[in-house]
Design goal:
globular; two-stranded antiparallel ribbon; alpha+beta; 310 residues
Length: 310
């Protein structure tokens, strides 16, 4: 089983950046501004993919929606095993989260491969270009990191209360991975939260998610929503020093302090009950001797058109 806990470390770290700069944000006036040029743009600000983006008319101020690409790297740091796009409307304080299966089949330079392998060829920009090609959404910011700070952050935040829908038991000595969670509502510390987000199958045949990684993605999204509901609070500014120290050690991003403080007010109003969670539509298929996730272009276009802020 591959490690897939990274997304939660990234999300926690994003929150940490916000909390750590909360006081500074209170002192800086939040003036309206347009979202920055996509990271796939050239120096003149022209989008290299030549997509047209329009402002969602439902936005209540002058700021356009923006998109944050979240990547979780594997142990080698060459592939992104977790890919999520956070689609945010600052005017409405509304958030959509799109999960993209790491095995999604894409074409690059005339050859087919998995989207998670693009990172080794062109890092965040190449992955962003392909995500934009798939979704039609520009990527303005990125956050990339590995998994090491996850447990420390959950513990520093005091754990996350979460309902575990069924008993989870799995042991893989080769990865030193041991998952043992009871069913029911409980406070997950760093170790238990890690077990939750890594679980995909049990020790015996028939245990685990029938959808495989797609089922695990759904559980990960539920955890993110619980995190937003419980931890996106001004009271965590008191932990700013601890959280910011962890963030600096494990995160790579093009977000600046100015960006973060500008959007803090709107981010703090996000409600988990109004956060949309989506998975790139498609099906798993064996092609040759390789498993791929084949996206459904029509369903993807309909989903973006009907639910995402542009």
């Amino acid at each position: 089983m591959r490690v897939t806990k990274y997304i939660f470390t990234v999300c926690l770290l994003l929150l940490c950046v916000l909390f750590a700069n909360g006081i500074y944000a209170m002192l800086e006036p939040a003036t309206g501004r347009q979202s920055p040029a996509p990271i796939t743009a050239d120096r003149t600000g022209i989008n290299l993919l030549e997509h047209e983006y329009r402002h969602n008319e439902s936005s209540t101020n002058e700021e356009n929606p923006l998109n944050l690409l979240v990547l979780g790297l594997d142990r080698d740091g060459t592939r992104c095993d977790v890919i999520m796009l956070f689609n945010f409307d600052p005017g409405l304080s509304r958030l959509n989260i799109l999960s993209i299966a790491r095995d999604t089949r894409v074409r690059k330079d005339g050859k087919y491969g998995r989207i998670n392998a693009l990172y080794s060829k062109g890092e965040e920009k190449m992955v962003a270009e392909k995500v934009t090609e798939i979704t039609g959404l520009p990527v303005h910011y990125y956050i990339t990191m590995d998994f090491r700070g996850f447990r420390r952050l959950v513990d520093t935040l005091g754990g996350v209360e979460f309902y575990v829908p069924f008993r989870m038991d799995y042991d893989d000595p080769t990865q030193n991975l041991h998952i043992h969670l009871k069913k029911g509502r409980q406070l997950l510390n760093g170790v238990k939260a890690e077990q939750l987000v890594r679980y995909r199958k049990g020790n015996y045949s028939g245990q685990g998610y029938s959808e495989g990684d797609i089922g695990r993605i759904g559980m990960q999204q539920d955890f993110i929503k619980a995190l937003i509901e419980q931890k996106l609070s001004i009271r965590y500014i008191s932990r700013a020093d601890e959280l910011f120290a962890i963030m600096k050690e494990y995160i790579h991003t093009n977000l600046t302090i100015s960006d973060i403080t500008h959007y803090l007010g709107s981010v703090s109003k996000i409600k988990s009950s109004e956060t949309g969670t989506y998975t790139l539509p498609g099906d798993s298929q064996m092609i040759g001797d390789v498993w791929y996730y084949i996206l459904n272009n029509k369903e993807t276009a309909n989903m973006i058109s009907n639910h995402f802020y542009r």
